[in-house]
Write a structure and sequence with these properties.
The protein has helices at about 1-15, 35-50, 60-65, 70-75, 85-100, 110-115, and strands spanning about 35, 60, 80, 105. The chain is mainly alpha-helical. The chain has a domain at about 45-120: Orthogonal Bundle (Recoverin, domain 1), CATH 1.10.238. Bound molecules: calcium ion (3 copies). One calcium ion binds near residues 77, 82 and 86. One calcium ion binds near residues 51, 58 and 62.
Length: about 120
Amino acid sequence: MKYAALLAAGAMALAVPAFAGGGKSADADGNGQITKAEFDASTQAEWTKHDKDGNGQLSMAEAGAKDPAKWKAADTNGDGSLSAAEFAAKKSAWFAKADSNADGMISQAEQHTAMASKSH
Ligand SMILES: [Ca+2]
Ligand SMILES: [Ca+2]
Ligand SMILES: [Ca+2]
């Protein structure tokens, strides 16, 4: 009986995710620079993740958006939800703004600056 309990405990330990600090980071190769390709891939993944009903449109509720004004600005065709293209356009604008030295990559410093200046 004791053995079974130990095995069960072992199995539970294995079930705990092994990776710590699991990244939402777009820096897929972990070199400290986010290229536009990495950024686009991450944007796509993020959009897909948020589109919970899979209807190809991201509603404000699905995205958990807190700022209706910003949402409306991104919703360029004004239908109340963001298509993948609208979402990508909004993200691309952020990328261009964050890439302050315009080398096509977001360094950690640039990322930090962009996050810090982001108002909620
Ligand atoms: Ca949706
Ligand atoms: Ca729209
Ligand atoms: Ca840069």
